[in-house]
Amino acid sequence: MANYFLEEKDSFTVVSIGTELKSQYTDFAGINKEKSDFWQAASQDGTLDDLKAIATNDYVFIVNEAVNNKMMHYAGVMSEAPAPAAGESRESRVVQFPKGEYLVVKGEGNTIEELSNTVTGIAFGQALPEANHVAYVGGPNAAVVMGKRDGLFYGEMWIPVVRK
Questions:
Q1: CA pair distance 148, 132, nearest whole angstrom
Q2: How confident is the model at residue 89 (pLDDT cuts 50, 70, 90)?
Q3: What DSSP letter does each residue of 97-137 carry, written as one string?
Q4: How far, in Å, CA of 142 to CA of 16, rounded?
Q5: How far apart are CA 43 and CA 113, in angstroms?
Q6: 97 touches 13 (CB < 8 A)
Q7: Which of 38, 72, 79, 158 has its CA 20 to 30 A from that of 96?
Q8: What pLDDT band is residue 26 in, cutting at 50, 70 and 90?
Q9: Phi, psi for 71 (deg, rounded to 5)
Q10: Is-contact 72 66, C-beta < 8 A?
Q11: CA atoms of 38 and 41, how far apart (whole Å)
């Protein structure tokens, strides 16, 4: 049984820079490699630092969203500032998360990538199927890196849901 809870959230804005995932949605190895390559580049080229400089808190958002029939993956921060320049082969985007109920899964990992993969896997693989009184109807979802303690990154997966 997955450990999850439902939480009411106000709408919020995530300013982000991202990339289109070109692997088939069932090609988990391909998708994970594309995400890993994106995060490695964003960490090394200063993209994450640029985003953190405009953030209203310390959270880093790992956002997935379908946009214009493309599977998009973003690094973002909660902010009201305009997105910094995205650079070649990347896209900047202001992602609006709706006010409403969210399915939330807590987790931790040795790396940001491990944290994200853990909470995403539990949320979509276990929690959503178990939470049969709510449904995910699309829209942005995010793994939220909230900090680091005892050598581990900790955070949550936030998925907007509606009552069935």
A1: 32
A2: low
A3: EPSEEEEEEEEEESSHHHHHHHHHHHIIIIIHHH-TTEE--
A4: 12
A5: 12
A6: yes
A7: 38
A8: confident
A9: -90, 110
A10: yes
A11: 5
Per-residue tokens: 31? 């998708």
SS3 18: strand
Question: Distance (Å, rounded) from C-alpha 129 to C-alpha 20?
Answer: 27
- Amino acid identity of residue 59, one-letter, is Y
Q: How far apart are CA 126 and CA 102, in angstroms?
A: 15
If residue 146 lies in a helix (H) or strand (E), which one and from where to where? Answer: strand 141-149
Q: In sequence order, what are the residues at sequence separation of 6 or more whose Cβ sits closer than 8 angstroms to the Cβ of residue 44?
A: none
pLDDT tens sequence across 46-68: 889 999 999 999 999 999 998 88
Please state the length of the chain: 164
Burial environment of residue 140 by CB neighbours within 10 A (0 to 12, 13 to 18, 19 or more): buried
- 93-115 confidence digits (pLDDT tens): 999 999 999 999 999 999 998 99
Question: What are residue 44's phi and psi, to 5 degrees?
Answer: -80, -35
Instruction: Evaluate whether 103 touches 4 at the Cβ level (below 8 Å).
Output: yes
Starting at the edge strand found earlier in the chain, the sheet holding 152-160 runs: 5-9, 100-109, 152-160, 141-149, 60-67, 70-78, 12-21, 91-97
Measured distance CA(93)–CA(14) in Å, rounded: 8
